[in-house]
C-alpha cells in the first residue's frame, strides 16, 4: 500500500471502473461509489482477481439525491478515510428532442452530473487545500465544447463541468496550492452510456473509444497534474473543431451524430 486513498464515483463500470483499476495497480486504497451494491461487489471481485491485496471500500450511493454527496463525505469522515484523489466520474445522459424527453430524468441528470460533482468537490477540495496536497479528476466530455441537439441537457451539464473546473484550476494557482484539478474530456466511449441514454443506434455510438484507453490517458494526466486530458485523436479533433467552427455549425454536426444510423 502507498497509504493513499482514491474515491471514484461511477466506479462499477466503464471509465470509472477502469480508473479504479489504474489506482489499484498503483497500490491505492480505492473507495468505489455507485448506486447498486451488487454491481459494486462485482467490480470488487474483478479488481481482486487482478490485484489481490488492494484494499477496496464499497459505498453504495445514489448521487441523484440532493443530500447524497454530503452523506458520502460524512461516511468517509466516520471511517477516517483521508481522500487523496477524488474522481467525479458519475454521470448519465438522455437522448431526444428536449420537448419530448422526461423532465424528471433531466433534473436527476443535472443533480448527478453537475450539482453532486460540485458538492463533492467543495467538501474534499477544502480538506485537500488545508493539507496542501491532493488531486481531483472531473469527467467532462467532448460535448463540453459544443451545443448538442438531442442531448441538450447532458451537453449543458458537461459544459458546466468544463467551466467550473477551469475556474477552480485558476483559483488554485492564485492560492499557490499544490492541489491539482484535471478535466478529462473523452469522445464517445464503449460504456453503458449509450444504452442508458437510449442512443445505442446513433452514429456517435458506432465506433466508440476503449474505456481502458480513455481511463489510462486521464489517469496519466491526473498524476502529471495536467489541466486537461483529450484522450484519443477523436477527442482532439472535436476540441480543435470547437475552436475553428461557429456554434451553429457545431450544433449541426452534433445533431448528425445523435441521429440513428440508416438500416
TrEMBL record:
SUPFAM superfamilies to which the protein is assigned, alphabetical: NAD(P)-binding Rossmann-fold domains
Entries under InterPro entries matching the protein: NAD(P)-bd_dom_sf (IPR036291), Sc_DH/Rdtase_CS (IPR020904), SDR_fam (IPR002347)
Keyword annotations of the record: Oxidoreductase
The organism's place on the tree of life at top rank: Bacteria
Family: Belongs to the short-chain dehydrogenases/reductases (SDR) family.
PANTHER family linked: DEHYDROGENASE/REDUCTASE SDR FAMILY MEMBER 7B (PTHR44196), SHORT-CHAIN DEHYDROGENASE-RELATED (PTHR44196:SF2)
Name this polypeptide is given: Short-chain dehydrogenase
Species in which this protein is naturally found: Hymenobacter glacieicola
